[in-house]
Amino acid sequence: MARHLTLVPAAELSEVDVAAALDGNRPLAVLPAGPPAAVDAARAVLRPDEPLEDGADLVVVTSGSTGTGRGVLLPAAALRASGEATLRRLGGPGGWLLALPVSAIAGLQVLCRSLLAGTSPTVLGPGEHLADAVARMPRGRRYTALVPTQLRRQLDAAPDGLRAFDAVLVGGAATDPALLQRARGEGVAVVTTYGMTETAGGCVYDGRPLDDVQVRVRDGVELAGPVLALGYRLDPAGTAAAFGPDGWFRTRDAGALDAEGRLTVAGRLDEVIITGGVNVAPPAVEGALRTHPAVLDAVVFGRPDPEWGQRVVAAVVPVPGAVPDLAVLRPWVTERLGGPAAPRELHLVAAVPTLHTGKPDRRAVAAALLQEAH
């Protein structure tokens, strides 16, 4: 008998829904909160009218940070393998603070880990201070998961609340080394995570793969193990391209393994800017810009250039009262990353838009600035 997806709006998702998916009893997909267009786009990917692929228990729509979002087919076994390996790595079960959207894998995994630990998550309310949410958490070990922007904001507003956690998982986007150093200097137990929806969330912690996860670098970072998804919803060609017959998932991320097997990820292969024959990773430039005292946030992307092939373009959010200048920021980046990485074009913006996962939406910034130019 054919199985079909149950679509649940993010605001209505319950632990019962997630538990049913984890038990393999009712396939689930969570519709993102947001404008009707975002919900309609997710429905178009999920196609609840079509029978569900065999073995899938949860379908998560990716953020589409490098193109159109896709529905990732996750079996309950992968979710359990990921959640159980995480709890072992962190030191055992504990209470979780949910501070991420449940339509994305990072937020959903907070719910899954809580269920596996026999606890209920504490939900960070809109506008609620982190310390107040921590005060509502049960005693014992405490965990949470954040994206880098949240970590930065919480360090500015409430570092005491962050220090209350036994581990603060940070992932979803590249994390600036300066931000990590600052957090650890404040006594925050930060754990960097690398992974994606196709790996049921983070599967490499502080550069080390979780139990039974394998990492290799060929044409980009490749991952294998029990946490892998089955493929993409109603997309056999995309599935075959990303999930090889040898059991390895091709991430399309640039990375390297050191002599001790520790993984370092530089960013998306298709986001690398080639300027004057030199490869420039946008996350590295963004990190350098954010360390400037006049810059609150930044997003970097490439544009065609008749002389350089591509030029590095930066859109920055100024610190209140500051007016960052290209003549100042170029040498700042050059000193840290070299001349090719220095932006050749600068725009000041009020905020950096994010995808529903919390990642910076580089495509939206580039499109908006192009529209302004026209």
Short description:
The chain is of the alpha/beta class.
Description:
- The protein is 31% helix and 27% strand.
- The chain has 12 helices and 22 strands.
- The chain has a 7-stranded mixed β-sheet, with helices on both faces.
- The chain has 374 residues and is an alpha/beta fold.
- The protein has helices at 15-22, 36-46, 76-90, 105-117, 130-135, 148-157, 159-162, 177-185, 236-242, 282-290, 326-337, 362-373, and strands at 6-9, 28-31, 58-61, 71-74, 95-98, 122-123, 142-146, 167-170, 190-196, 201-205, 208-209, 214-218, 220-224, 231-232, 249-250, 253-257, 263-268, 273-275, 278-280, 295-305, 309-318, 345-348.
- The model has no long low-confidence stretch (mean pLDDT 91).
- The chain folds into 2 domains: 6-266, ANL, N-terminal domain (Rossmann fold, 3-Layer(aba) Sandwich), CATH 3.40.50; 272-373, GMP Synthetase, Chain A, domain 3 (2-Layer Sandwich), CATH 3.30.300.
- Helix 1 packs across helix 4 (105-117), helix 3 packs across helix 4 and helix 10 packs across helix 11 (326-337).
**What distance lies between the first and last C-alpha atoms, to the nearest angstrom?**
54 Å
**Cα radius of gyration in angstroms:** 21 Å
Helix run count: 12
Biggest sheet strand line-up: 6-5-7-8-9-10-11
Specify the CATH architecture of the largest domain.
Answer: 3-Layer(aba) Sandwich
Rounded mean pLDDT is 91
Question: What name does the CATH topology of the largest domain carry?
Answer: Rossmann fold
CATH class of the largest domain: Alpha Beta
CATH superfamily of the largest domain: ANL, N-terminal domain
Question: What is the strand content?
Answer: 25-35%
Share in helix: 25-40%
Shape: globular
Low-confidence spans: none
- Topology, number of strands: 22
Instruction: Report on the biggest sheet.
Output: 7 strands, mixed
Structural class: alpha/beta
Keywords: Ligase
Protein name: O-succinylbenzoic acid--CoA ligase
Domain AMP-binding enzyme C-terminal: 285-359
Domain AMP-dependent synthetase/ligase: 52-209
